[in-house]
Structures are given as C-alpha cells and as structure tokens.
C-alpha cells in the first residue's frame, strides 16, 4: 500500500506538487492522468526517491521511504524515456542489472521471447530504434517479480502487436495480485486496462475513482470526453 | 558501491581514451629515459608535465564521464542501490582508472630502465603518489562541478576555469602578493598559501625531495626547513588527503539532495 500525505515539491519557482494526498491500496491497476506538466512524473519519481520533496511523507507498506533505499527492491520501474548507456549491448545491460539487484531471475528469457528481441541481444543499445529500446526497457522492468510495478508512459513507440502483448502482460501481473501504477496519454489504453483513475490537476488530486464514476461525475458518455471536459472546465 | 565501481572501471577500461592516456605516458616515459639517459632530469621534466597535465585530465575526464553516464546513473537510481554509492562508486571508478593509466604508463618504462636499482626510486615513487593524489583531487572537484550544473557547457566551462585558476592564475596572484608585501616576513604566508593549492603543494613537495630547493632561494630554505623534515612531509600528505576527503564529502552531500 502506498500512502502519500501533504506532498510538496518545487523546482526553482515552479511549484509542481501542492500538498498532494493519495492512498493506493494493494492489488489492481491505477492510472495517473493529467495534462502535461501536472506532476505525474514528479509524483512517480518521488515514490521512487529520485526526486526529493520539500515536505510531506510517502510510506510504502507503513514504512516511510525517507533516506531509505532498500525498499526499491520491491519496485519495478519503467522510466518515461528509455535512456541507456550506449556502448553496452542488450545482453550486457540485462546481465548488469541482474547483478546489481543481486537477483538471478530467468524471467528475462521469457520476456525476450515475448517481445521478439532475440536478434538484438548482441547489438549495442546506441544503435537500437526507439521502439526496440522501449521493449528492452520493458524486459528490464518486468523481469523482477516485484509486488509494485510503476510504468511511466509504457506505450511510447510500441507497434500494435507489442501493445497487445504489453496489455496481456500487465493483466497477467495484476492477476498475481500486484499493484500497478501507470501513466499514459492514450485514453483508450487507460480505459481498457485501468481499474481506477487518479486525475492530477495543478499539483493536487482532482479526481480518484473508476472510469464509470468519472463518466457519471462529468456527465459524459465516453471516457475520452469525460477527461476532456475536466480539462476544458479547468482551463475555462 | 564496489559493484558500481567495478562497472565504471570496466566501462572506462573499454574506452579508447584510457588507452590514449596510457600510451601518452608510456611514450613520455620512454622518450625521457632512453633519449635523455639522466634519471633525475627525467624526473624533473616528468614533474612539470604531471603537475599541469594530471589535474587537467582529471577535471576534463571527471566532468565528461559524469555527463556521459547520466543515463546510466538514472537507471541505477531506480534500483535498490544507495544514492551515494552510485556517485562515489563512479567517482572512484574514474579516478582509479586514470591513476592506473598514469602509474602503469610511467612505471613500465622506469621499471625497464632499472629504477629498482637506482637511488631515484623514492623520488619517482613520490612523483607517482602526488600524481595519484592530484587525480583523486581533481576528479572529485570535477564531479562536484558536474553535480551542481545541469548544463553541460556550463559544467565544462567551470571545470576548465577551475583548472586554469589553480594551475596558472593562483601562482600569479601568489607571486604578486609576495612582491607587494616584500617588506614583511612572508614565510608563514607563503607556507599557508601553498597549502591552499594542491598543485603548488605537490610541486614544492617534489622539488624539495629532489634536493634542488637551492633554486628556490630564501623561500626554498624556509620550505626546506618545513617540508624537508618528516613533520613537513606528514603535514603535506595530510593536507593532500584533506583535499581528497572534503570534495568527496561534498559529492556525497550533493548526491543525497539532488533531484533526477
């Protein structure tokens, strides 16, 4: 369970999170939505300890994460932009991350097969296309069986067939009772996959609930328009 | 931390620049020794090269490595690894691989020349020790600069300025102040002034060890009295160590507070 209380974060003068409160229960797929610059990535990076908030507390399973780092072994994180050291090959990178996490999983083989990465294993990461890099990114994220999975824009650059495979993969992980936190701008993807929506607006939670509740609240027939109506209302 | 150090070290060992650096020293050592045939002269020339080149390479490599491995660091930050181990590990990886290029590059030709049978072995060892110290110091300073500047160009600029200041400008200011205040007793001031610049400290340490302090005139005598004794040597090594420890501590502090 993730519990966030009164989270504030400023980058210089730009106040991104303004006293955000959020509780995410165990199990299920949660989608964090919001316009560009609403603080989705900042929120995710705060949970990971990559961004250090000005004030507020974040606790994971009732343990505060401040100054801790070992809790990250229970998190699998997919970064938004797949940036890897360019002079390593795919195989070396996978081996290195396994070594660093001291986890000798063999789930990577399964994932390499799933995303058809076999022929890229010996290629240098600098020479891969954006979509292929994203697939490597997905392998690195899903190969450790952690109870919390955080995905920042997982669909970026994926072809339709890989997208279907990704959805299956996410659903399979959910069935194992894992908590999955994701952000995306593709509304059809979110509607299809998410159990609950967390809508961020101007640094606070504007709405939290199911897609059905959002439709009723905004009085819109479909999800995409429901989201759009929140945005037009807030900008008006 | 050791794992990060290992990966950074291997990463650098695979890079072309480590070899360029290594072969440069190898060539320098061979040329100086076998064409010159005078060991103490060779050591003095080497000192002049090391004193300016090692800090320059240390700063440039440090800044460059930090910016180039940014992606790698971001990948590591999401893993269950302590933040400070990531950056201290990378710092040590860079500093140790540079030191290794220096020690091996210069050491090999000297070993073949027969340094072990010569009386200059201690002068030579001191040269390598100060070279290693300078590498550790300037790489640490470079990491501090890179950690505080998101902008690459700015980071490089500050790094070059730092080197220029400590290698050239500091001496100028120091000399001018000595000339300006020549009516006053200056031995204390110049001693202290030397301590605040690791390059000067290393240079004087080596010059005195080489027993050519007579070239330095009166100041040389004061310095000889201070540095020449074992007490002076211990103090200088302590100050050089402080120059390593303090910037390393700041790397740790900066790494703990930075957003990625």
Question: Could you explain the architecture of this structure?
Answer:
With 236 residues, chain A is α/β, with parallel strands linked by helices. Chain A has helices spanning 40-48, 90-100, 107-114, 130-142, 160-175, 187-193, 211-218, 223-235; strands at 2-11, 14-24, 28-33, 55-60, 63-64, 75-78, 148-152, 179-183, 196-201, 204-209. Chain A has one domain: P-loop containing nucleotide triphosphate hydrolases (Rossmann fold, 3-Layer(aba) Sandwich). In chain A, strands 6-7-8-3-9-10 form a six-stranded mixed β-sheet, with helices on both faces. Chain A has a four-stranded antiparallel β-sheet with strand order 2-1-4-5, covered by helices on one side. In chain A, helix 5 (160-175) links the parallel strand 7 and strand 8 (179-183). Chain B has eleven helices and no strands. In chain B, helix 6 (121-148) runs parallel beside helix 11 and helix 9 (198-209) crosses helix 10 (217-228). In chain B, 40% of the residues are buried. Chain B is mainly α and 260 residues long. Chain B has one domain. Chains A and B meet through helix 2 of A and helix 1 and helix 4 of B.
Tally the structural domains of chain B. 1
CATH architecture term of chain A:
3-Layer(aba) Sandwich
CATH superfamily of chain A: P-loop containing nucleotide triphosphate hydrolases
Which fold name fills CATH's third level, the topology of chain A?
Answer: Rossmann fold
- Which structural class matches the secondary elements of chain A? alpha/beta
Oligomer: heterodimer
The arrangement of helices and strands of chain A along the chain is EEEHEEEHHHEHEHEEHH
Globally, the shape of chain A reads globular
């Amino acid at each position: 369970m993730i519990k966030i209380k009164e989270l504030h974060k400023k980058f210089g003068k730009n106040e991104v999170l303004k006293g955000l409160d959020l509780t995410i229960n165990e199990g299920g797929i949660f989608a964090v939505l919001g316009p560009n610059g609403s603080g989705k990535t900042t929120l995710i990076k705060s949970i990971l300890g990559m961004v250090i908030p000005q004030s507020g507390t974040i606790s994971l399973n009732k343990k505060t994460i401040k100054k801790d780092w070992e809790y990250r072994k229970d998190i699998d994180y997919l970064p938004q932009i797949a940036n890897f050291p360019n002079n390593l090959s795919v195989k070396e990178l996978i081996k290195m991350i396994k070594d660093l996490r001291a986890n000798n999983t063999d789930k990577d083989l399964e994932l390499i097969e799933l995303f058809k990465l076999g022929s890229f294993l010996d290629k240098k990461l600098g020479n891969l296309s954006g979509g292929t890099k994203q697939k490597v990114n997905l392998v690195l994220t899903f190969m450790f069986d952690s109870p919390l999975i955080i995905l920042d824009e997982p669909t970026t650059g994926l072809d339709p067939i890989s997208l279907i495979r990704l959805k299956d993969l996410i659903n399979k992980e959910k069935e194992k009772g894992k908590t999955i936190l994701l952000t995306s701008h593709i509304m059809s993807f979110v509607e299809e996959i998410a159990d609950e929506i967390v809508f961020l607006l101007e640094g606070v939670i504007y709405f939290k609930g199911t897609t059905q509740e959002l439709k009723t609240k905004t009085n819109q027939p479909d999800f995409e328009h429901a989201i759009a109506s929140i945005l037009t209302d807030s900008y008006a | 931390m050791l794992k990060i150090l290992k990966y950074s070290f291997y990463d650098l060992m695979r890079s072309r620049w480590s070899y360029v650096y290594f072969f440069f020293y190898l060539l320098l050592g061979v040329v100086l020794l076998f064409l010159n045939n005078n060991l103490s002269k060779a050591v003095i020339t080497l000192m002049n090269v090391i004193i300016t080149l090692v800090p320059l390479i240390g700063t440039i490599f440090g800044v460059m490595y930090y910016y180039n491995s940014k992606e790698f660091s971001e990948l590591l930050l999401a893993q269950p690894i302590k933040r400070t181990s990531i950056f201290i590990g990378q710092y040590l990886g860079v500093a140790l691989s540079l030191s290794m290029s220096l020690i091996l590059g210069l050491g090999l030709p000297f070993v073949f020349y027969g340094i072990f049978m010569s009386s200059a072995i201690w002068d030579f060892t001191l040269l390598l020790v100060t070279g290693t110290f300078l590498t550790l110091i300037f790489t640490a300073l470079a990491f501090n600069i890179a950690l505080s500047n998101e902008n690459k160009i700015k980071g490089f600029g500050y790094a070059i300025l730092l080197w220029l200041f400590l290698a050239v400008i500091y001496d100028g200011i120091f000399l001018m102040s000595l000339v300006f205040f020549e009516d006053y007793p200056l031995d204390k001031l110049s001693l202290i002034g030397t301590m605040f610049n690791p390059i000067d400290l290393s240079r004087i340490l080596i010059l005195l060890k080489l027993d050519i302090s007579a070239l330095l005139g009166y100041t040389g005598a004061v310095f000889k009295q201070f540095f020449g004794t074992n007490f002076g040597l211990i103090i200088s090594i302590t100050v050089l160590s402080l120059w390593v420890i303090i910037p390393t501590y700041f790397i740790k502090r900066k790494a703990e507070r930075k957003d990625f």
